[in-house]
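Hello forum,

I keep getting stuck at the same step: I have a sequence, I want structure tokens, and every attempt I make locally crashes halfway through. Rather than fight my setup again tonight, could one of you with a working pipeline run this one for me? It's a single chain of 76 residues.
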Amino acid sequence: ITITQYKAGYIIKEEKINRTDRYGMKQGMWVEFYPNGNVKKESDYWNDKLDGYVKEYTIKGNLIKSVKYINGTEQV
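Reply #2:
Ran it on my machine without issues. Output:
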């Protein structure tokens, strides 16, 4: 639930992902991965509703789809 980046043995960045609040609602960035470790899908949540961009990637890491949501509703 945390992605940590290191440089020369030191932590340079930590990103908290796939978190729920005390009520079990999704909050923040949710990330799915392919078996090779590449990102498959990124989604932003606020109070268990999609809120922001949902991005889908190929197994090689190329962006194939990006859709914006506001309060759970897809924006056209």
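The chain has no helices and nine strands. If your local run keeps crashing, start a new thread with the error log.
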